[in-house]
Amino acid sequence: MNYEEKINYLLNNKEEAKLLLCSSLELFIKVFHYLTTNQEFQVKEFHKDLISKLENIVFNKQKNLLVQMPPRAGKSETINYFICWTYTINPFCNNIVTCYSDDLVGKFSKKMKAIIETELYQKVFGIKLSNDTHSVGLWKIRDGGETRAISINGSITGFGCGVKYTDYGGSLIIDDPMKAGEARSEVMRQKVIDNYNQVLRSRLNNLELTPTIIIMQRLHKYDLAGYIEEEIRAGRIDKEKWDIVKVKAITDNSDSFWEEVYPIETLQEMRKQDPYTFNAQYMQNPISEGRNFFDIEMIDTTIIPDDFDYKYITADTAYKDGQDNDYTVFTCFGVLDKKLYLIDILRDKIQAKDIEDRAIPFIKKNTSYGFEGCYIEPKGHGIYLNQVLSDREVMMPRSREVDEFFKDRKLDKVQRANAIMPFFTNNKLYINTSISQQLKNEIIDECINFPDGLHDDIVDTVIDGIKYFMNKEIINEYAW
């Protein structure tokens, strides 16, 4: 049967239609989307996952839901259908729906009213809007509950969501609480968080039973979703009361999450042109500009493989001798099955007269089949080492390769860190568990505190190591 035939069948078989539509949010969405738009709703795997989570809230008493999705992925439409669907299960539901814009929330509200006013909805469920429903932002079910739709900063005095004595009686729903253009303002981000804590949460009619549903695209590391995740990590919010869903535009298999709307070539180009926006809005992994580039979740420790597809070393040497000089750092990386491993590291304050005696043994012990060279920044001690190590039977890149590799030194360290952040959308840096605990701590601490830490010598070699990996593995995707 086509959709017209299916809808006619439902209209003529009221009891069966009610059973089918009440038991399946997915079917409800498909039917009423076609009725109100004359188009089919494409239900992709990530839609199915979201629908399942929403059904769990109603049927299995799941407490709260935080969904992070790319823009134009159907999240708001799904929520609109969800609210209308819940009235078929409990006509006394009370909902508060909020987002960053009065115009946008008004549009959502009109859509929900249009669904409820369809012939099929009213005939099958016997649910109608109250005669005194005239406001776009407030509509009521006849002899039932109500939905208040308002912008994030609007007044909701006198309104509550949920009911006091029912397992499911409505939700607090927050849909994109912030404009993209305001995300870099700490004041605006804090305003949203304060509004959530001080205003919206006070509108829950039942603190134990009324769920909160937050569905948004990520805009900043410290947006509302980031705040909730941090509160969960710190133990100030019970993680058992939240279900967190993250939809990445580029999947872990390097495919598009929705090829028909976002071809993988388009996503790759978007990521290359604007990694900040792409990481946040499309990969749910925002990186704050200018600080805290590396998150602890980007780094892991592991037992390394016995063999690698290829290995290489990146190095950052001190500018000058003296007790207070920079550290000299040599970091060995290995790649296997497109995973990047930090195999070994030398970090010390080394005087020029000792540099060969310290560097050569480190390089040679990490040289094996597949070793592709040692890339030393041509500054300080590095100028000398690039000249002499090839004469000491150490595999070194040619001088023009060195110049090409380090041409990004015309950029500052923050800009160079920006450039390698796309690596972390689908990858981690794996640190060898055999490295001493002190060195592992120094690697992690220096990365996490960059660019405000006391030292960044390790970070320099890590950035170069990831850059080498990206150049080799994704050369058609990233240009240096």
Structure description:
The structure is a single chain. With 480 residues, the chain is α/β, with parallel strands linked by helices. Helices cover 40% and strands 15% of the residues. The chain has 17 helices and 13 strands. It has helices at 3-12, 14-23, 25-37, 45-59, 75-89, 102-116, 119-125, 186-200, 224-233, 264-273, 275-282, 355-365, 381-388, 399-405, 413-420, 437-449, 457-473, and strands spanning 64-68, 94-99, 138-140, 146-151, 172-175, 212-216, 242-246, 299-302, 310-316, 328-336, 339-348, 371-376, 429-432. The strands form two sheets. Strands 3-4-2-5-6-1-7 form a seven-stranded mixed sheet, with helices on one face. A hairpin with a 2-residue loop joins β10 and β11. The longest helix has 17 residues, at 457-473. The two termini are 54 Å apart. The model is unreliable at 475-480 (pLDDT under 50).
Low-confidence stretches: 475-480
End-to-end distance: 54 Å
Number of helices: 17
How much of the sequence lies in strands comes to 15-25%
Q: Rough shape?
A: elongated
- Provide the residue-averaged pLDDT: 88
* Oligomerization status of the protein chains: single chain
Q: Rg to the nearest angstrom?
A: 28 Å
Q: Portion of residues in helices?
A: 40-55%
Which sequence of SSEs, written as H and E, runs from N to C?
A: HHHHEHEHHEEEHEHEHHEEEEHEHHHEHH
Q: What is the strand arrangement across the widest sheet?
A: 3-4-2-5-6-1-7
What structural category characterises the helix and strand content? Answer: alpha/beta
DSSP E strands, number: 13
